[in-house]
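Appendix B, Record 12. Input sequence as logged:
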Amino acid sequence: MTRVGLTAERLTRAGAELADEVGFDQVTVSALARRFDVKVASLYSHLKNSQDLKTRIALLALEELADRAADALAGRAGKDALGAFANVYRDYAREHPGRYAAAQFRLDPQAAAASAGGRHAQMTRAILRGYDLTEPDQTHAVRMLGSVFHGYVSLELAGGFSHSAPDSQESWSRILDALDALLRNWPAP
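Logged structural output:
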C-alpha cells in the first residue's frame, strides 16, 4: 500500500534537501525513510534504490541550474553573459552544496540524454558565439569553462581560499576577466 503523500517527486525534493544538509554522498533510501519516519520498504514503490534516488536528485539539480542560468543569461552577451553564467553556478553551489554535488553525478547515457545537461551545453555554446569561436575550439572552450568554474567552486566550498588574502570574490572577478580576455584572443592551433 502506498503511503499517502509520498510521491517520487516529493521524495526527490526531500532527498535534495537532505543532500544539502548532510552531503550528497550520504543520501540513501534508508536516510530518506528516516526523514519521513517510515520503513524503507514503503519507499520502494516510488524509488528503485539509492542509485535511482541519486539519479533523480542529479536530474533535479541539473534542471534547477539550467533554469537559473537561462534566466541569468536573458538579454546578455559577451563578458556580461560569461559572468552571469559563472555566478549562477557559484551561487547555486553555495546555496545548495549537496545538489551542486549531485549535478556532477555520472548519469547513464539514457538519463543523461533526457537531462538538462544539454541545455547547459547549449547555453555555454551560446555565450561562446559572442567570442566568435568555431569547432573544435568551441568544444575546448566549453570544457575549459566547466573545469574552471567547477574547480574554483569546489575549492571554495571546501574552504580552500578562506585563510588567505585577497578575498575569494576578488580572485573570482579576476578569473572571469582572464577568461574573457582568453576567449577574445583564443590562440590559434
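Residues 50-73 form the longest helix (24 residues).
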